[in-house]
Amino acid sequence: MDKRSLLNPDQAAAILDWIRRRPRGGERLQAFIATLYYCGPRPEEALAMRVVDVSLPEPDADDQWCELLIHTATPEVGKQWTDTGEIHEQRDLKGRAEGETRTVPGHPALTRILRQHIEDEELKPGDLLFQGESGGVLAGSVIRRAWRSARKAVLPPHVFESPTGRRVYDRPGG
Length: 174
Hints:
It contains six helices and three strands. It has a single domain, classed as Intergrase catalytic core (hpI Integrase, Chain A), CATH 1.10.443.10. It is mainly α and 174 residues long. The radius of gyration is 16 Å and the shape is globular. This is Tyr recombinase domain-containing protein.
């Protein structure tokens, strides 16, 4: 991991805030990117998550850390490379045995964001946690476009041109 690619907490907070204020789907994208930032799953792992995979504490609990169950990945591989003709393909976790899962703790800031996201989107336990505008899988092109726009709007030009946060998945442990 190139340490120069890591965002500092102030940069990450500014990017998350900018994305949240986007007119189309900003709050939805903020929840997705906050999950990557605070928990570190690969983007394709976060895209595969369902509401039931998130364990949120009661709102009045002293401990506000949440837990995410990561059990599958939905990479964007292209229609020509899948048996179904879909853009995404469901796979086991990279570098893990078939069917293996992992549990990841989520910072209290993420707990607040996810609780609000689930409520605002009126998501049910079996629903995808992060959906596109029409309810399907959130498109990689939408994520990349929003990420690049947020970096450009928030970071000084010399930082934008540097490796800092160039990819949405540049994070410790990524």
